[in-house]
Amino acid sequence: MTVTFRTVREILWRDWDPIGCGVPEDEYDDYVPPVVAMLTQGKAREDVGDYLRVTAAETIACPVSEQKLARVLDKLFALRA
Questions:
Q1: I need a surface site. Which of 11, 22, 47, 78 has the fewest CB within 10 A?
Q2: Stretch (H or E) spanning 34
């Protein structure tokens, strides 16, 4: 797999999903481009994690657990391999 809007969108929708109640597939589309940019620019795992952590907690007001975030980051960074 490669880093594309579609692959990142699917990971955010299926795995990150801070709201967690069967939201539409485009629910997190606003957050996909920054993640794609960070991954393609070679940003560190902690930078992407911080973005997703803050977005979930402060923007969406639905924090995600560190375990869930770690699994999401594993999937996102596997796209770069």
A1: 22
A2: helix 32-40
Instruction: Give 81's pLDDT tier (boundaries 50, 70, 90).
Output: confident
Q: Which residue has the tokens 């999401």?
A: 72
As a whole number of Å, the CA-based R_g of the chain is 11
pLDDT in tens, 6-59: 999 999 999 999 999 889 999 999 999 999 999 999 999 999 999 999 999 999
For residues 56 and 63, the answer to whether their CB atoms sit within 8 Å is yes
> What is the sign, positive or negative, of the torsion defined by CA atoms of 71, 15, 50, 62?
negative
Continuous segment of H or E residues that includes residue 51: helix 45-54
